[in-house]
Amino acid sequence: MSAHSGAKRRLGQPTLAMLPRISDSLSFLYMESVRIVQDDTGVCAQVESPRGTERVYLPAASLACVLLGPGTSITQPALATFARHGTSLVCVGAGGVRSYAGILPAQLTTEWLEHQARAWADEDERLRVAVRMYQHRFGTAPSGAGLAQLRGLEGQRVKALYRMLATKHGITRFRRNYDPAAWDDQDPVNLALSAANAALYGVVHAAVLALGCSPALGFIHSGTQMAFVYDIADLYKAKITIPLAFSLAGSMRPEREARMRLREEFRLYKLMSTIVPDVQRMIAPDVAQPSAQDGATDIVHLWDPDLGSLPAGVNYGDEAAGDVEIPW
C-alpha cells in the first residue's frame, strides 16, 4: 500500500477528535407552538403571525439538546440535521408529562459504554459507583455506610435544604409535590422545580448520549430508560435547580422563568464542561480520560477474549484459518 493511500485511509477513519465536544455546546433551547423546518439556509423555527410567517434560525451545530414543548412539530430534514450534529431532542408534554428521544451520532466510541456496562453488571462495582455518587453529593460520606444509610442521609439533607430555603424566601410551609393530574393547582416553587428538573434531565441526557453511555443503566435508579440520567442529574439539583425554584416563590410564571434563568445558571456553573468528567469519574475513576489531542486513535476495534482489542479493517483470513479445513 502506498504512503498516499495509507494517509487517505487514516483520514477517512473516525477518530476521537471527530467526537462531539459536548462541553463546548450551548446547554438547551426550549420551544413551543412552533414548526421546525430545514430550508436552504439552515434549521429554523416558524410561527404564523398577523405579519405572516416569522422565522428564527437555530444554531443546530452548537446545541446540546432541544426541548420540544406543546404545539411543536419538526420535519424530517430538520431532524436529520440535528442528528448529524449530535443534538438530542427532548419532548416535553403538557402538564409536565415528559417523554424523551435521543439521537446518537454513528461515529461515537463505545469505550465509556463498556465501562458503564461492566460496572453495572458487577454487583460489587455497582455498589461502589452508587456510593461514589452519594459521596459526590455529600462532599463526603460515613466510612462503611451502606446504600440504605446513604439514602436516609440524603433524604435528611434534602429536607434540611428545603427548610433552609423556605425560611430564606419567607415560605411558611413547603412540601415537594409532583402531580401531573393537577398541574395548575401546584404552588410556584413546585412548578418551577418540575420545569427546572425537566430541563436538567434534558441536558444531562444529551451529555450522557454524547459520551456514548446508556441512559438506561442506572446505579441508584432502575426500571426506567432514564435511570442513569436521573443518577447524574441528582448530582446537581441541590446546587442548581432547588435553590432556583425557591427563588421563584413569588413568580406569576414560574415555569417560564425557571427555564430562562436556568440557562444562565448552567453557564455560571459551567455545567456542560462538568457533566462529562463527572460521569467518567463515577463509572471508571481509575481510567485516564481520553484526550481530544489523540487524533490518531482509532475508534473501531475487533474484540478478542484472549488478545483484547485488535485493529479493524484488517483481513485475518490466513491467521484465523491456520490448519482448519474449510468445508467449501
TrEMBL record:
The keyword Metal-binding applies. The keyword Isomerase does not apply. Pfam families: Cas_Cas1 (PF01867). InterPro entries: Cas1 (IPR050646), CRISPR-assoc_Cas1 (IPR002729), CRISPR-assoc_Cas1_C (IPR042206), CRISPR-assoc_Cas1_ECOLI (IPR019851), CRISPR-assoc_Cas1_N (IPR042211). GO terms for molecular function: endonuclease activity. Its cofactor is Mg(2+); Mn(2+). Its EC number is 3.1.-.-. Mn(2+) binds at E154, H221, D234. It comes from the Bacteria. Keywords: Antiviral defense, DNA-binding, Endonuclease, Hydrolase, Magnesium, Manganese, Metal-binding, Nuclease. CRISPR (clustered regularly interspaced short palindromic repeat), is an adaptive immune system that provides protection against mobile genetic elements (viruses, transposable elements and conjugative plasmids). CRISPR clusters contain spacers, sequences complementary to antecedent mobile elements, and target invading nucleic acids. CRISPR clusters are transcribed and processed into CRISPR RNA (crRNA). Acts as a dsDNA endonuclease. Involved in the integration of spacer DNA into the CRISPR cassette. Homodimer, forms a heterotetramer with a Cas2 homodimer. Belongs to the CRISPR-associated endonuclease Cas1 family. This is CRISPR-associated endonuclease Cas1. It comes from Nonomuraea corallina. The gene is cas1e.
